[in-house]
Amino acid sequence: EARPPLTGKHALVTAGPTHEPIDPVRYIANRSSGKQGYAIAAALAALGARVTLVSGPVALATPPGVTRIDVETAREMAAAVETALPADIAVMVAAVADWRVEAAGQKIKKGAAGTPALTLVENPDILATLAASPRRPTLLIGFAAETEHVADHAQAKLARKGCDWIVANDVSGDVMGGDTNSVRIVTRDGIEEWPAAAKADVAARLARRIADALA
Ligand code: C5P
Question: Is 109 annotated as a binding residue?
């Protein structure tokens, strides 16, 4: 029997949200179940890739054959991605918080001081940093969750981030936390519209598409 198509390839996947502490007991985060990213990690492993999954806090089991590195904040995710290089393939699915908070060292108490104000600081863009890196993976894929003008926004994001493909998903419906997804694959050559499908099926199709692109 033939070897699986991604044998010998290292694939790096980010998934889940990041949590950015406000104080030792509170945080801000993006909404993300991690399901699509975990499914992609599993699908790449099923095609024979060695997979490193850098994961924010989620309630999911590690897929078989996948090496998982748990992180909490965007800066921890950026460092873990850097440590995992080099990679042939990177699929950045994580819903990274755009800002972190200038966090308090102790729990902020209600009361006397009035309502606290949060000072936000921009987080590093992990995808854009990887695109500009001398160790840029051969195939670098970003995600874009959009609620409108999905294709236009994804085309713009492809150029801005410097990645090879954007997987654009329309999150205007009930994609968040659900088990199905409706995506478009945006490349420099055009846009492929894929029918709505289970996240596992979207992942399997994406993994095959990746294997074809590297063949
Ligand atoms: O700019 P936006 O957050 O919409 O871009 C989404 C894409 O960029 C996703 O692939 C996401 O994983 C990645 N990203 C990142 N680091 C950030 C923000 C987004 O890697 N700080």
Answer: no
Angstrom distance (rounded) from CA 31 to CA 191 = 26
Of 95, 52, 102, 53, the closest CA to residue 74 belongs to 95
Is 83 in a helix, a strand, or coil? Answer: helix
| CA distances (Å), origin 113, targets 116, 131, 161, 170 | 7, 44, 41, 42
The ipTM assigned to this model is: 0.97
User: Which atom of ligand 1 approaches the CA of 142 most closely?
Assistant: 10
**Backbone conformation region of residue 58, classed left if phi is above 0, alpha if psi is from -120 to 50, else beta:** beta
* Tens digit of each residue's pLDDT (9 = 90 or more) over 33-64: 999 999 999 999 999 999 999 999 999 999 99
Measure the CA dihedral 195/95/203/147, to 10°.
0
* Model pLDDT, residue 135: 97
Residue 98 alpha carbon, nearest atom of ligand 1: 21
Q: Which residues are catalytic?
A: 30
* List of the chain residues with pLDDT < 70: 1, 173-175
Ligand-binding annotation for 98, yes or no, is: yes
What per-residue string of b and e applies to 105-129 under the rule 16 or more CB within 10 Å gives b?
A: eeeeeeeeeeeeeeeeeebebbbbe
Confidence (pTM): 0.95
The tokens 């992942």 sit on which residue?
203
- Which DSSP letter does residue 95 get? B
